[in-house]
Amino acid sequence: MTTQPEQVLEDNLVIQLKGLGYAYVVLKDEQALLANLKSQLEKHNEVTITDTEFEKTLNHLNKGNLFERAKTLRDKVQYTKDNGDSAYIEFINQEHWCQNQFQVTQQVTMQGAYKNRYDVTILVNGLPLVQIELKRRGLELKEAFNQTNRYHRHSYGASHGLFLYIQLFVISNGVNTKYYANNPHQSFKQTFYWSDRENKVITQLEQFTKIFLEPCHVSKMITRYTVLNEAQKMLMILRPYQYYASEAIIERVKTTAKNGYIWHTTGSGKTLTSFKASQLLVKQPQVYKVVFVVDRKDLDYQTTKEFNSFSKGSIDGTDNTQALVKQLGDDTKLIVTTIQKLNTAISKPGYLSRMEKLKDKRIVFIFDECHRSQFGETHNRIKAFFNNHQLFGFTGTPIFADNAIKNELGKRTTKELFDDCLHKYVITDAIKDENVLKFSVEYVGRYKQKEDSNNNIDIKVEDIDTKELLESPDRLNKITDYILQNHDKKTHGRTFTGMFCVSSVDTLIKYYELFKAKKLAGEHRLRIATIFSYGANEDDKDANGFIPDPELEIDDNAPINKHTREKLDEFITDYNAMYGTKFSTKDSQSFYNYYNDIAKKVKNKEVDILLVVDMFLTGFDSKPLNTLYVDKNLKYHGLIQAYSRTNRILNEQKSQGNIVVFRNLKAATDEAITLFSNKDAIDVIIMQPIEDYVAQFNKGVEELYAITPTVDSVNYLEHEEDELSFVKAFRELLRIKNILTTFADFSFDSLGMTEQTFNDYRSKYLDLYDKVKTDNSVEKVSILNDVDFELELIHRDEINVLYILKLLAKLKYGTTEEQAQQRKAILDLLTGEIQLRSKKELIEKFIIENLPLIEDVDEIPAAFDAFVNDEKRKALVDLCKQEGLVPEKLNDIIGNYLFTERKPLRDDVFDILIEKPKLLERKPVVERVIDKVLKFIDTYINGMPESETIV
């Protein structure tokens, strides 16, 4: 049987959609699209719209960017009718989402920078809200994803920009089908499979269409389960497990008075789920308030901020108990507070007179990470005080009989506190769906390693070892050296960041001082920071797996550990010197501000390693954090919580969370995985050993050689299909090498390809990328156009312009032959490094024209700087002359780009043109100028050492 052509797939899909109740309509171009929009809006609103009135409606629709149009879609527009009356038009019915007009069309053609034809479009009330792009069976799904991004650049915004109203995309090759929100800046990692309630993935297009694209369901996903993220100005859509959890909570509230809990693994997006559930609950007429309860001040602040990012102003964070009591009595529908404030509100006599009025109100309490705060007396107090309450808990690591904590109330499980589990999505589900990463766990110390293993360092790791031995200066020094030697490997040249959790504050102080001394001695340049509680000196003693939550609201009058506080102030002084801040422990607010600043800097990759005892091991999310060093006893939920700091999805380069363990935690790791999934899950959750990836790489080398036996043979590939085969084969090697390089034992010596040969093939790979991405003549026809080259896998921080300048110095010495070899090595580097390719001609010109005239090698950096500035000025003058630009205004645009890193706006670029092009010529001219400006920045500014101003 031949491969199913794309057209057959498309036609079958349209037939199925018609069977589901969609009206089929032929719309070949924008004119037909507009005529249909008018008639559908009339039908939906049960009105007649004149041409003049429709023109006003179109003007309203054609305003703002994609995010602003998503808001317009959800609003009613007021307009003045021809007879002077005021009227409203609704674009989509959000309350009764099935009561909309549903149509399907195919092959709509739009003319923008290029002419594009879209596969299948679902229209709701005449607006294109769902776009489906198909590839024939056997092709990569990512190609359809890249195609939608290309359409964003080329035609979605053309003319009236109706395709900017797309809310979600569906991409499929028949066998695999995914959906995602319309956000052109997201990665392929943010595309999702749909699944059933038991998390069984639905991949086939036919089954997906039957369930997900059923008119009522897809309309429900748009109107109820698409989130407009205010902070990032982008659309987000819930994943299936988030949808089922939200629906389960709403159904529970509508039909029963029972409690319940949601078990969704750490890192799977519980905040978004709880927000959406809360947002929908406050709309239920029987619900008086929704109170979202967290157990620490930092989470209070963090959760309030996250909730407000999803819907600006939706949350009023309660700064104190007085504010909480006030909000419980006023018209605030959704409240975020801490368990401590809630306990005070229902316990202190001063608040009881006002609180008594609320006892019979229908209040829904939602507890974040419910296992951390709900096992004390407060839980019983809440249940006893409120007569008409419902409690819902979210947790990534529930408490079962095996890991239940014992206190004065006895051992209690999550089920005993919250009744039934309403929905479950465990770590194996999330890894299978690629919603979180696997863990690569390396045990370092006296283990039965290979004899030559870099992990076989002489430190004690057995759990029977004494505190004195575990904290001995020799052991701590060896561990510190190991981290310094391997941190760049683990974090891909500090593209990512790390955290180091240790057993006690005393041990942390010793480690910090070791890192500091070695930095002063010139042994490393890592930015080390730390934070810990100075009110107590927590040791490694919890037997139940809980990571204690250090109290951030420290009582300034309470007894403190003076030595600990002085040390922390000393370390904060180092932090202030490094970042130009002014924090201290003088009071709890300053300490809290320090906490927030450190959290922000870790998320922004401004801290290389954060040293902690307990803080940040639970409830802290940072996508760039990929490595956790562990010198602390962890077990059960504490272990999973700590490990999970590293498992957030980011991009292709972040292929796993790295866990480096200096204790004997193998059995504890296996126990924890078994408890929260099952015994067979260990191989699913933990990465394979290095030997397996070496074997995979060597197999990939054989497949590459079958396509291109030599590096030069890439030049002679006759057909694009052959080039595509080479790209895919070498890309697979890049992916495996990306994993391999994080292992301490990685070396090219064990691989079936030398490092030089690998780099040579990489240059050819980049040549093909350049050919496709820079040749506009192949824009519409090249099969390589939508292939993802995954260039982030090629980035290497250590190869930069400063590194090249050091190599240039070597060109001044040696024989003619040695100089020729060095020059070739430099040019090969410039060809093979993605961040330097744009500078190849520039650096080569410097080598030919300027380098021979320099006598002192110490003058090379200054000479190169002067050369670049001179070339930069000439290039800027040429650019202004070629395109007719105002130099001063161009300088402003470049400066704004360097500050915001956002592509220049078309209107801003149009403004710098001396002669304004005609309307039809405007877009291609502006796009050409933008491309040239970005190329100028890439060549002369990005990655260059600090130098003069632009003009």
| Strand line-up across the major sheet | 15-16-14-17-18-13-21
Rg (CA only): 30 Å
Q: Classify the secondary structure makeup into a structural class.
A: alpha/beta
Strand content: 5-15%
Per CATH, the architecture of the largest domain is 3-Layer(aba) Sandwich
CATH topology of the largest domain: Rossmann fold
Low-pLDDT parts are 947-951
Main β-sheet description: 7 strands, parallel
Helix content: 40-55%
CATH class of the largest domain: Alpha Beta
Number of domains: 5
**What's the tally of helices?**
35
Q: Give the overall shape.
A: globular
How far is it from the N-terminal to the C-terminal residue, by CA? Answer: 63 Å
Number of strands: 27
CATH superfamily of the largest domain: P-loop containing nucleotide triphosphate hydrolases
Rounded mean pLDDT is: 86
Overview of the molecule:
There is one protein chain. The longest helix is centred in the last third of the chain and has 24 residues, at 860-883. Helices cover 45% and strands 14% of the residues. The strands form seven sheets. It has a seven-stranded parallel beta sheet, sandwiched between helices. The protein is of the alpha/beta class. Residues 947-951 have low confidence and may be disordered. The termini are far apart. A hairpin with a 4-residue loop joins β11 and β12 (234-237). The protein has five domains: 6-227, Alpha-Beta Complex (tt1808, chain A), CATH 3.90.1570; 240-425, Rossmann fold (3-Layer(aba) Sandwich); 441-685, P-loop containing nucleotide triphosphate hydrolases (Rossmann fold); 690-793, Methane Monooxygenase Hydroxylase, Chain G, domain 1 (Up-down Bundle), CATH 1.20.58; 801-940, no CATH class.
